[in-house]
Amino acid sequence: MPLYKTITVSPTTKVYIWKVTEPEGELSKDVELTEHCQSRMDGMKSMAHRRAFLSIRHLMADAGYVDHDLYYDDFGKPHLKDGKFISITHSHNFTGIIISETDEVGIDIEMQRDKILKIAHKFTPIQEYKTLANSEALIRKLTIVWGAKESLYKIYAQQGLSFLRHINVIDFSFEDTRTVAEILYNGKRTHYEIEFLEFEGFTCVYALKMMGG
């Protein structure tokens, strides 16, 4: 079972990352899906998507949950029936979840690709990063910023929230492995902690809503 990494963020918050290497048949063993999730999986034409979907159920099992403990709201945001907070992500052959007893959380895994240079202006003021030494560093940084904004969007879960206009990620160095961010939307300001890590050409970013923020 390739549980790739677990990160204890705090005594109440944990990240679980899976590297998907097994065939679908092996992943489907011991996994019982709800009717809703079974129909979602049945609709997936891509075997890679189905394997990712099943691997997330194994991550949940590592955290002590089964698929029946999970439900989705009208926005498509996942929730746990016991009231703890959960967020889910997958990218190619990596999947991840973050679970917290105390904080609203979001997680995103992205493959580092130069394609991000073309779309950067749509989600961040690109001129802020012109001091970076080379395009590889720029791709890494933009991927972290994108992942942070994806994570925050998953927490906030409101239609109309703009990555460019409403979400601000404070600049950071790679060595910090963390930063802070704020969302200013509909006159309301909220604050978040951001942490990130890189592995095998991928970037994982997770966000926690700050107390009182």
From TrEMBL:
Tell me which domain of life the UniProt entry assigns to the organism this sequence originates from.
Answer: Bacteria
Q: Which Pfam families match?
A: ACPS (PF01648)
Enumerate the spans annotated as 4'-phosphopantetheinyl transferase domain: 105-195
Answer whether the UniProt record assigns the keyword ATP-binding to this protein: no
Q: Which InterPro entries match?
A: 4-PPantetheinyl_Trfase_dom (IPR008278), 4-PPantetheinyl_Trfase_dom_sf (IPR037143)
Question: Care to name a GO molecular-function term for this sequence?
Answer: transferase activity
Which controlled-vocabulary keywords does the entry list? Transferase
State what protein this is by name. Answer: 4'-phosphopantetheinyl transferase superfamily protein
